Amino acid sequence: MLDYVFSAAVTMLVVIDPIGLAPLFLGVTVDLSAEERRLVAWRSCAIALAILVLFGVVGAPLLGALGITLPAFRIAGGLLLFAISFEMVFGRRTERKFDATDGEMRAQVLRTLSVFPLAIPLMAGPGAITAMLLLAGEARHDPSRLAALFAITVLVIASCLVVYLAAERVNRWLGVTGNAILSRLLGVLLTALAVQFVIDGIRASFPG
User: Fold this and answer.
1) Which residues cross the membrane (predicted)?
2) pLDDT at residue 150, rounded to an integer
3) pLDDT in tens, 80-110
4) Residue 159 sits in which domain range?
5) Is 174 exposed, middle or buried (0-12, 13-18, 19+ CB in 10 A)?
6) Which among 6, 46, 81, 131 is least buried, having the fewest CB atoms inside 10 angstroms?
């Protein structure tokens, strides 16, 4: 049991990587206010946690029934991330060009951003989903192990929330020019991550 808990904790922490998500969070929320950024942080973490727990419970049978493979998840996640990274590099966040007085439209944009790309695929991405499926399989329907796995997942997502909320201080320190530069640089890094997702998916699909 202790070995399982240690393995699950290290795996989920490394795969989700809360510290590594901090600059990406700043990059995709660069044009939001402090209050909106906090709201997006809470929502995205809640959504990611729900998705990971769901896959831990019924993920493997569901994917098997639909005929969907994990490499397909990696490729799809990579393509979605590439679209976001392209917009970050060239400053074309067209989905956020709205009238600031239109509260309903702004709320819709915040909800969308919480789901994609923050919850999916940055936190509950192909790697995290794969890890949940494998660790849930190793639990072998043992309730205590599954409870430990879900508790670990909650703690890791909670650490993501803490990092996101602390990122606001970094945002104030950078200022407008610093944020613009950071957004472009992170867009390039996110592009590389997206391409790596696709490469990993293709390699897993065609191992030869």
Assistant:
1) 6-28, 40-66, 72-91, 112-135, 147-167, 179-199
2) 96
3) 778 777 776 776 554 444 444 456 777 887 8
4) 2-205
5) middle
6) 6
